[in-house]
Amino acid sequence: MKLYYMPASCSLSPHIVINELGLDVELIKVDHTSHKTEAGLDFHGVNPHGYVPVLELADGNHLREGPAIVQYLADLKPEAGLLPAAGTMARYKLQEMLGFLSTEIHKGFIPLLYARLAGGYVETARPKLEKRYQWIDAHLADRLFLMGDRFTVADAYLFALTGWGQAAWLKSYYKAGIHFDELDHLKAWYLRMRQRDAVRKSIVEEGLAFD
Ligand SMILES: N[C@@H](CCC(=O)N[C@@H](CS)C(=O)NCC(=O)O)C(=O)O
User: What is the b/e burial string over 88-103, where b = at least 16 CB atoms within 10 angstroms of the residue's CB?
Assistant: First the structure.
């Protein structure tokens, strides 16, 4: 299998899941601006939408959309316990969380990431995103991980997204940053995540700085 990724983007989520599971997956880096791989392949031939992550399966099929990819990967090794069994209420609750992360957090960041283009809309988007993070913070008050006392694929996704909120450039960029200062449970969870071997390995493999 191959994972098409852009460093520090949402593709860090399946990257972490791959390392948690110890799967043998080739990493293919895609340039954010040119949309070409390091070998010069036009990524639009892989994904007409132009975005990562994309998982290329052994038979050449492509799987898109982070929430689908992480579930596919984790289902390859159910014994690792990175998600509940399909068809159970626990699995639907996990999918509820992935949907929340995808639409409320991931896409909630977009106006902040494109603050110059978003203009005044940033002032609407930022408090909304902060409210969503306040909810996550309260949710983490009595659990170690998003879905309880075990790490799941939802934690990998939230970790990839939360890194953006930590980024110094976002904090200063047109005052677009969001504030995690009072979110102690979120901060503790984030530090816990950074101590995981699979997270550290993924960060190193993507060439990201450890601060
Ligand atoms: N709906 C997609 C969105 C993925 C997405 O937003 N990818 C971003 C990185 S976080 C990307 O590849 N942006 C580059 C581009 O769109 O050209 C998913 O959830 O997987």
Answer: eeeeeebbebbebbbe
